Amino acid sequence: MQSLRLFCDVAALRSFSRAADLHGITQSAVSQRVQQLEEKLGVELLDRSVRPPALTPAGELFAREARELVDRYDEVVRRVAAMSGEPSAAALTGEVVVAAIYSAGIDLLQALEEDFVARHPGVEIRIDYKRPEDVDRAVRSGTCDFGIVSYPRRWRGVEVRPLRDERMSVVCPPHHRLAARREVKAAELGGLAMMSFDAQLPVARHIKRYLRENGVEPEITQEVDNIDTLKSLLEHSDEFAILPRRTVRREAEDGTLVSVELEPELNRPLGIISARRARLGLAAQTFQDFLVEHADPDARRAPADAVSISVTV
């Protein structure tokens, strides 16, 4: 089964080296495993005379059928393991690599990672935080199992699975003039100093567009590329920022920051992206399902079924 899974990834990624990175083995080992399959079947599955390597007609048929077998095997393993009362805990092993944008919420993802590993001790999770374009690149190159980005859009070659929609709010220190308000209208933010995300990030562009649509030209005093740094700076400033409300719950409870309702409503969608033709291993698929279920129980999410689209980050 592992050889079938490996061949499916070579076929999907059109690359021995990317498949090797995905499986944590050498490129030579991948080539040898594929060659052994070809010898056993008595046909060439890949045309190595072109770059990237292309599937032969026999390879197209084998990849299609093998992919169905691998998916079916993973589903059977999941169902059988679930009968133990601890769904797939004993069956899950291996490493899952996730590439996530910095503003996805490092504290939340770390907590979810720890919870998942406690349930599935045979799995090692690695979350690499990157800029949006680097998350996209990691997914397309096969150097991660899947990625997490904001504002996913239609594009070729990548699947997107909705993760959560985050309600945005005005966030400021307790001494700020807005801190005593229960609600603030976007039009009232004109003339106030504001911290924001790096202007090149999608979230920054959407916030800026939202304010302009409400007649406000942002007065940006500082830009950073992640939520945690932005929150830390806000605590010792006289500025405000527009952040996902969920990400400041802890600070609001501690009294170090105040979250004020923003009107009209502004939401930031997050999505999970993966290479459209690649197949996730059982551990990666289970962790992805876990994220969708637990990432934000009170958020309004679209149905979790993946759709074949891609993403502009």
Describe the 3D structure.
- The strands form three sheets. Strands 3, 4, 5, 6, 7, 10, 11 and 12 form an eight-stranded mixed β-sheet that branches. Strands 1-2 form a two-stranded antiparallel ribbon.
- The protein has helices spanning 2-13, 16-23, 27-41, 57-82, 106-119, 132-141, 202-213, 227-234, 249-254, 282-294, and strands at residues 46-47, 54-55, 94-101, 123-130, 146-150, 158-172, 183-185, 193-197, 219-224, 241-244, 258-263, 267-275.
- It has three domains: 2-82, Winged helix-like DNA-binding domain superfamily/Winged helix DNA-binding domain (Arc Repressor Mutant, subunit A), CATH 1.10.10.10; 94-162 and 269-294, D-Maltodextrin-Binding Protein, domain 2, CATH 3.40.190; 165-268, D-Maltodextrin-Binding Protein, domain 2 (3-Layer(aba) Sandwich), CATH 3.40.190.290.
- It has ten helices and twelve strands.
- The protein has 313 residues and is of the alpha/beta class.
- It is elongated and about 75 Å long.
- Helix 7 links the parallel strand 8 and strand 9 (219-224).
- It starts with a helix and ends in a 19-residue tail after the last helix.
Give the structure's gist in a few sentences:
The chain is an alpha/beta fold and 313 residues long. The chain has ten helices and twelve strands. The protein has three domains: 2-82, Winged helix-like DNA-binding domain superfamily/Winged helix DNA-binding domain (Arc Repressor Mutant, subunit A); 94-162 and 269-294, D-Maltodextrin-Binding Protein, domain 2, CATH 3.40.190; 165-268, D-Maltodextrin-Binding Protein, domain 2 (3-Layer(aba) Sandwich), CATH 3.40.190.290.
